[in-house]
Amino acid sequence: MNRTRQALTVETPKDQEWVSHPQFEEELYRRNAHFPDVKPITHGPQYHWFGYYDKFSTDPEDRFVLSMQVDFDDRSPKEDDFIRVGLVDIEDSYKWTQLGKSRAWCWQQGCMLQWRPGSTDEVMWNDRSRDRFVCHIVNVQTGDRRTLDFPVYHVRPDGKDALVADFSRIQSLRPGYGYPGIPDKSENISSPEEIGISIANLETGKLELLFSVKDIASIPYEDPAADDMHYFNHLAWNTDGSRFLFLHRWRSAGGRFPDFRTRMFTAAANGSDVRLVTDKPYVSHFTWRDPEHIAIWRENSYKLYKDDGSGSEETILNAPNGHHTYLQGNQWMIADTYADKDGCQNPFLFHVGTGRIVPLGHFQTLRYTTGELRCDLHPRIIRDGKRVIIDSTHGGNGRQQYLFDIADYIG
User: Of 153, 226, 225, whose CA–CA distance to 195 is shortest?
Assistant: First the structure.
């Protein structure tokens, strides 16, 4: 199924615009670069992807790769659109095994499909059941399934607890990052008291609200307005599960994406000790380096922040925006770029100590390059630390998953 590039009708957010970084580009596009062999692990006619890069997509043995499957990729999901959830066996001709379906999904983060941290045989994903979003936990060996009465956002590294946010509120204020199908009950409320960030025990199903949207919106910020509409997005535990971060975002009642502002906060696991990390403009993607440091792309560079409330920042790398992750040992970082001037997305390795850039390929984007429908590479290091999986449209078959080896590049 050959796909042609389609015209864009959406406004490009500032953090997705290509801004030239000559020194970085000199290394990224060098002519003598040797790229790894890239293998497709999913195929058409259906479309396949995994989405965000902050979860385990493989089992502990790195044999089975989780994937979502859908029959279209050219519009926003509607209330009754479902995706299939399954496993791809990379040791048995990429055989597909379906595990279930979901009606709670978006293009960028899917249904939060993931291998449960600390488990050898449990897989999790969000779904919709009547008037609520839920989370299924399925044992892939026995087929046993249990359903929790809430959707998960990010799971603690020990696999015991999860952070929970209101996906209806997210969908209302940032379409494409929440789920359609359930109206936002607080749609006309600037900063709701009833919703916020909760913590859930994945064994007992106990759910506890840590703080509300109103609690955080009440922390003073610059140029507040009575009609500012507040919400939380992008929650993530640190590497030892002692703290988590979240983005507090707001826009005027009549505004629309990309007209919003952002503050990043962290909090202790019980919701106490809330600290402002940064309220500077254009906070975008991030990753925890260790329990005390966060690498954030902000305003044309990757910067390192210490989670101490000081707000001080150290520039790591001047480069276009992308999705970055530290490899084990924190000596290397892997990242990608949004589509460049030639429509290519570019994964690369960055050696922290020397500043060396190792390009890993140039993947022509054959579908949407910005906006909700885009297919970001979202490079995901699998558990052996030597291989990477990406989502990409470069093969001409719509969004599919691809695998390549980086062992030779990281020594």
Answer: 153
The CA distance from 192 to 180, in Å, is 20
What whole-number distance in Å separates Cα of residue 411 and Cα of residue 406? 9
Helices (H) and strands (E) in the chain, counts: 3, 30
Question: What is the average pLDDT across 398-403?
Answer: 97
**Listing from the earlier edge strand, what are the strands of the sheet with 132-139?**
114-115, 122-129, 132-139, 145-148
d(CA 306, CA 292): 6
- Residue 130, phi then psi, degrees to nearest 5: 55, -110
Alpha carbon distance 101, 249 (integer Å): 31
Neighbours of 343 (CB within 10 A): 15
pTM above 0.85, yes or no: yes
Residue 389 has pLDDT above 50, yes or no: yes
92 contacts: CB under 8 Å, gap ≥ 6: none
- 260, pLDDT greater than 90: no
Give the tens place of pLDDT for each residue, 295-347. 999 989 999 999 999 999 999 999 999 999 999 999 999 999 999 999 999 99
End-to-end CA distance of the chain: 38
DSSP string spanning 35-48? PPP-EE-S-SSSEE
> Rounded to the nearest 5°, which phi and psi values hold at 26?
-60, -40
Q: Which ranges of 11-143 would DSSP assign to H, the alpha helix?
A: 22-28
Question: Token pair for residue 49?
Answer: 């992807």
Cα–Cα distance, 237 to 244 (Å, whole number): 4
List beta partners, residue 162: 155, 200
Phi, psi (rounded to 5 degrees) for 115: -80, 130
